[in-house]
Design a protein that fits this description.
By secondary structure, the chain is α/β, with parallel strands linked by helices. The protein has two domains: 30 residues; 291 residues, Glycosyl transferase family 29 (sialyltransferase cstii, chain A, Alpha-Beta Complex). The chain is 31% helix and 8% strand. It is built from eleven helices and seven strands. It has a seven-stranded parallel sheet with strand order 5-4-3-2-1-6-7, with helices on one face. The longest helix has 23 residues. The N and C termini lie far apart (85 Å).
């Protein structure tokens, strides 16, 4: 009889647990099931985006999530590539970093709009004196990158930021630039980038070895704001969009996409319409301003051996001419 009562009690507890999870929409760990979290990535638009033909996997979710990390990286072959285009040899780093982030949602849970009109705002000097701020703020999604400031440049580039893509050497460290409505997206280029994120998340002293310049020693964004970009997005930008070779000649440094091209690639996976601004670089005028802020000139970009600016400009020209994207800073 006692065993029978214990069985009933245990069954009741289990039933309560199951019902609690169902009613509250969780998977037992206090987080939303992945299919619910990712619902906003499904394109339910009547008309296919103009750029859909560029993508091999149009429905790819842009962020890595702890819940389906192994399945996703296997399905898209990301586990076959080393960084910056895969996770091979750094699986543990990725897994540990993701386990320290509370969620991987794309948009706010109350955002039910399936078709997003997006603008990707580059940091190019072409934005100077264009007064596009109000226009940029009118989009559903505003994507920015690195430490391109909004403060003091609102008339030129707007105030809103939905996503900001960054890496440790390019992220803001001044808290005055924090926006609680921004999702900060880490692009992982090397194992040190994941180590840096973990050291910040667990409050450990930052090891600055292995970075091309001193990384930020603090992160102005809260844990709930941070996401990790799926390396497939960067791989797609390099191999499919820019058509970089998989192997470069001996003695030549491999070329990687700029953060701007990676941001556009991400936009292709979450938006039904993509506009761009601030992506024109006058490579033939070394003294022209590189950014809409600061005093850097184009000569710095021409010295960068890790990017192929010419290839990127040709790619942008092509998709603009084919009306796959609209350029707000077209002369």
């Amino acid at each position: 009889m006692r065993a029978y009562l214990v069985a009933i009690i245990l069954s009741s507890i289990f039933l309560y647990y199951v019902l609690h999870c169902i009613l509250w929409g969780t998977n037992g760990y206090g987080v939303l099931p992945l299919e619910i979290m990712k619902k906003n990535n499904i394109k339910n638009c009547k008309q296919q985006p103009a750029f859909i033909s560029l993508l091999r996997y149009p429905q790819l979710y842009p962020f890595l999530c702890a819940a389906d990390y192994e399945k996703v990286t296997s399905d898209y072959g990301t586990n076959n590539f080393v960084l910056p285009y895969g996770i091979k040899a750094t699986e543990g780093y990725f897994r540990f970093a993701l386990s320290n982030l509370p969620n991987c949602e794309l948009f706010n849970e109350f955002d039910k709009q399936p078709c997003k009109r997006c603008v990707v705002v580059g940091n190019g000097g072409v934005l100077k004196n264009k007064t596009l701020g109000a226009t940029i703020d009118s989009y559903d999604v505003v994507i920015r990158m690195n430490n391109g400031p909004v403060l003091g440049h609102e008339e030129e580039v707007g105030r809103r930021t939905t996503f900001r893509l960054f890496y440790p050497e390019s992220v803001f460290s001044d808290p005055t630039h924090n926006d609680p409505n921004t999702t900060a997206v880490l692009i992982v280029f090397k194992p040190q980038d994941l180590r840096w994120l973990l050291e910040i998340l667990i409050g450990k002293n930052i090891n600055t070895n292995g970075f091309w310049k001193k990384p930020a020693l603090n992160l102005i964004y809260k844990r709930y704001q941070i996401r990790i970009l799926d390396p497939y997005i960067t791989r797609e930008a390099a191999y499919h969009l820019l058509q970089f070779p998989t192997k470069f000649p001996k003695g030549e440094k491999p070329k990687h996409p700029t953060t701007g091209i990676i941001a556009i690639t991400m936009a292709f996976h979450i938006c039904s319409e993509v506009h761009i601004a601030g992506f024109k670089y006058n490579v033939h005028s070394p003294n022209s301003p590189l950014h809409y802020y600061g005093n850097a000139t184009m000569s710095l970009m021409s010295q960068n051996a890790y990017h192929n600016v010419t290839a990127e400009q040709l790619f942008l020209m092509n998709i603009i001419q084919k009306k796959m994207v609209i350029n707000l800073t077209q002369d």
